[in-house]
Design goal:
globular, alpha/beta
């Protein structure tokens, strides 16, 4: 039986450079990182990050239930609301039994758990919130979206570290393909900018250390790259079978042509230096899509700005795509949004397909000598892009790759 084409008909995002679908595009094309000193991190070894600002989350979420939502949940609810509206759908008029919600995260409500632990230690049980559990468990983004969208189909919360966003999109696509739902609200969310997490990344050696302007510190593929700058946010898509979307007169933003996933089985934090297993994820996505490597017009790289990750990924790109398609890495602007990164970057890849323009890598004049990749630098590059691939590589060696095609 022929597998149905799966379309992304709606897109919603909230991150450091915009609170709506299209504003993040303007931000990454402008190559201006919003990384700044964060007062709540005062005294930490790393006291800067790319955080969402300029929006009252409680007011934006609305209603009387925001008190029970962690910051990461509010991000997801706002992104999902925008994605559903962008798709031209109305939860008041759909069959909720046929709507699935798949929203991944890496750390979930670890910030909320930390706050509750501090309150308990300092002031006792009465100081903790009755909603403390709801502020911490990682399935709450999917659950709150389901409640607000009257979606009573399957609800899942995948966690594959920094690959969680692409994993969620892949799972949602499979559910649509197998007929488990007719509409899937899928993506990922993360809010990890708090002292315990930031200290942990600093102690692990993964985080960039302050050296001048925080906005200049994340420089993927640069010879002097020095580590991660943390970010936060969410991206959510509405996925449907393309034939269903056409039947209701919707115009897809993109098609999910293929996905691939592998596990390095090598080290908890470091990628396998050969990159061979991660390349298996790329090969799997291309095989799933029915593409040859030379069919790929553009690569959205994981590009964390860490020495080992970028070196491994650059070598992988050089081998997997010998025709040297242009490469971007949005973390130079957005920072590393951890579990949400893959969904945010898949969304940006869709916008790349739509605009026919590839955003540049921030803070990069030229890739490290020896990296045989065509990095887009300094200004957006206007090129026809019909097929693109986005990489996500997470702690635990969990690799996820998504192939996206213009409709």
């Amino acid at each position: 039986m022929k597998r149905p084409a799966i379309a992304a008909t709606g897109l919603g995002t909230i991150n450091q450079v915009g609170h709506t679908t299209d504003t993040p595009w303007d931000g990454v094309c402008a190559v201006e990182s919003p990384a700044r000193t964060v007062p709540e991190l005062h005294g930490c070894a790393v006291d800067f990050a790319c955080t969402v600002s300029g929006i009252d989350l409680d007011d934006a979420v609305g209603g009387r239930t925001a008190f029970r939502m962690g910051r990461y949940v509010k991000f997801a609810v706002l992104a999902a609301r925008e994605a559903v509206a962008d798709a031209g759908l109305d939860p008041e008029h759909w069959d909720g039994t046929r709507v699935a919600v798949v929203v991944g995260t890496s750390s979930g409500g670890s910030a909320g758990l930390t706050e509750q632990a501090v309150a308990l230690e300092r002031r006792g049980p009465e100081a903790t919130s009755p909603s403390g559990i709801l502020l911490t468990i990682p399935n709450m983004p999917a659950a709150e979206i389901a409640i607000r969208m009257k979606a009573t189909g399957p609800s899942l919360a995948p966690c594959t570290a920094c690959s969680s966003g692409v994993t969620a999109l892949s799972v949602a696509r499979d559910m649509l393909t197998l007929g488990h739902c007719d509409i899937a609200i899928a993506g990922a969310t993360e809010s990890i900018v708090f002292p315990v997490a930031m200290t942990g990344f600093a102690r692990s050696g993964a985080a960039a250390q302050r050296d001048g302007d925080p906005a200049r510190l994340c420089r993927p593929f640069a010879a002097d790259r020095a580590g991660i700058v943390m970010g936060e946010g969410a991206a959510v898509m509405v996925l449907e079978r393309a034939e269903d979307a056409r039947a209701r007169g919707a115009s897809p933003r993109a098609l999910i042509a293929g996905t691939g996933a592998t596990t390095d089985a090598h080290h908890p934090t470091s990628p396998h230096p050969s990159g061979d297993v991660a390349r298996g994820g790329v090969d799997g996505a291309l095989r799933d899509a029915g593409w040859r490597p030379e069919d790929v017009d553009h690569v959205n790289a994981h590009g964390t700005s860490t020495p080992l990750n970028d070196a491994t990924e650059a070598a992988l790109i050089g081998r997997a795509y010998p025709h040297r398609p242009p490469v971007t890495a949005p973390k130079g602007v957005l920072g590393h949004c951890m579990g949400a990164a893959g969904a945010i970057e898949a969304g940006l890849t869709i916008l790349t397909l739509q605009h026919g323009m590839i955003p540049p890598i921030a803070n990069l004049d030229a890739p490290e000598p020896g990296f045989d990749i065509d990095c887009v630098t300094k200004a957006p590059r206007e090129v026809p892009v019909r097929r693109a691939v986005s990489h996500s590589f997470g702690f635990g060696g969990q690799n996820a790759v998504i192939a996206l095609q213009a409709p």
